[in-house]
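Q: Could you fold this chain for me?
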Amino acid sequence: MAPGLTDTPAARSGQPAALFEDMVARQALPRTLVPGDVAATVAFLASDAAVLTGQTLCVDGGLVLR
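A: Sure. Below is the predicted structure, expressed as structure tokens.
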């Protein structure tokens, strides 16, 4: 899994607020990523429904699409 910039205290530590605004502007989904976004993906991967192998899931709000 490859999570994008997620709004956490550690990620915001020492970073200007404009960094998050810039990232959101470049994502396909126009909102800040939160820990729950990553947690939902982890929960799916840990479930019986996930039969993925050898894949990298980008949990980045569509940033790689731009």
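A (continued): Strands lie at 2-3, 58-59.
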